[in-house]
From TrEMBL:
Cited SUPFAM superfamilies: FAD-linked oxidoreductase
Sorted UniProt keywords: Oxidoreductase
Region (Disordered): 1-20
Compositionally biased spans, kind Basic and acidic residues: 9-20
Molecular function as annotated in GO: oxidoreductase activity
Species assigned in the record: Neorhizobium alkalisoli
Record's protein name: Methylenetetrahydrofolate reductase (NADPH)
InterPro entries linked: FAD-linked_oxidoreductase-like
């Protein structure tokens, strides 16, 4: 009986799930890895024409696989945006080889610049700022560069629990954005609670950051899978939303969907049209097929290539 009481759901205010999300979701981007992309027969049957597709560069992924995936997506009419993880790159010469191959072999003109997942760099490059300082992306004519945002902080960058280092990095990138022809934007880690996201967006705007925010969300997936990814990716304060959901048996048995989160963000953006929050970026943690279908259902005017 005590166990049943533990999982008994408590009455709570229901989020406005009926809100039209099409304006917020229009132009969304999504993420793949080369090994997961290889399992998709035809992206054109899944994603709207011209969708920006980030290509995650995980430690151990051969650059040949990254370039081949980028070329496939570009050839199919999508905008390929490979991750460039500084800490996985041994030296500037290797970085230039990668940038050259992406640009000349795969037609890539956009990239997400990251520190990377390693605790220690394998070479001389350590951060997205180091990547920017090489000048290679300007030299090869990249038209758009994205950088990472951390609404809930990042203990790897700020181990003291403050946000000083990540804030300073954003200010550096804001200055760079004002002195380059490339368009810059911030893409964030996924989150589950809109409140810290909104607070962060307002705080960086007040500090002088003007780069638009592409807000990360987790696509539909099992709650257990989501909690595993949240813990491994360092999602902080908003993980309490998942913990609360895990205590509600009615929600524990159905896949997580980001509708409540998106509805609150859509309402905030409608009331604050000058917000830096511009677009949505999907992390398809439960697989690209469920995420693509979820987005299609909420974008009735989707124009697929195939």
């Amino acid at each position: 009986m005590a166990l049943l009481n533990m999982f008994r759901s408590k009455p709570e205010e229901k989020a406005p799930e009926s809100r039209d999300l099409s304006g917020l979701l229009e132009g969304f981007s999504i993420e793949v890895m080369p090994r997961t992309a290889a399992k998709i027969d035809d992206f054109r049957s899944l994603l709207p024409q011209g969708t920006r597709v980030y290509i995650a560069h995980i430690d151990g992924t051969p650059i040949d696989d990254m370039v081949a995936t980028a070329k496939r997506l570009t050839d199919d009419g999508f905008v390929a945006m490979p991750h460039i993880p500084a800490r996985l790159i041994p030296n500037r010469a290797t970085l230039e080889d990668w940038v050259n191959r992406y640009h000349n072999d795969a037609g890539v003109e956009q990239a997400l610049l990251l520190g990377g997942g390693l605790a220690n760099p394998i070479g001389e490059l350590e951060s997205s700022m180091h990547l920017i300082e090489t000048g290679l992306f300007d030299r090869y004519g990249f038209k758009r560069l994205h950088v990472a945002g951390h609404p809930e902080g990042n203990k790897d960058i700020d181990p003291d629990g403050t946000t000083k280092a990540v804030d300073d990095a954003l200010k550096f990138k804001q200055v760079y954005s004002e002195n380059t022809d490339a368009k810059l934007a911030i893409v964030t880690q996924f989150s589950f609670d809109p409140k810290p996201v909104i607070t962060w967006a307002e705080r960086i705007a007040a500090a002088g950051v003007k780069m638009p925010i592409h807000l990360g969300i987790a696509g539909p997936t099992k709650l257990q899978t989501l909690i595993k990814f949240a813990l491994s990716c360092g999602v902080g304060a908003s993980i309490s939303v998942l913990q609360k959901r895990a205590l509600d048996l009615s929600k524990l048995l159905v896949p997580y969907e980001p509708t409540e989160f998106l509805s609150e963000i859509a309402a905030y953006r409608a009331a604050n049209p000058a917000s830096l929050i511009e677009q949505i970026h999907v992390f398809p943690l439960g697989g690209i097929l469920p995420s693509a279908e979820y987005m299609r259902q909420r974008l009735p005017a989707v124009n697929l290539s195939a």
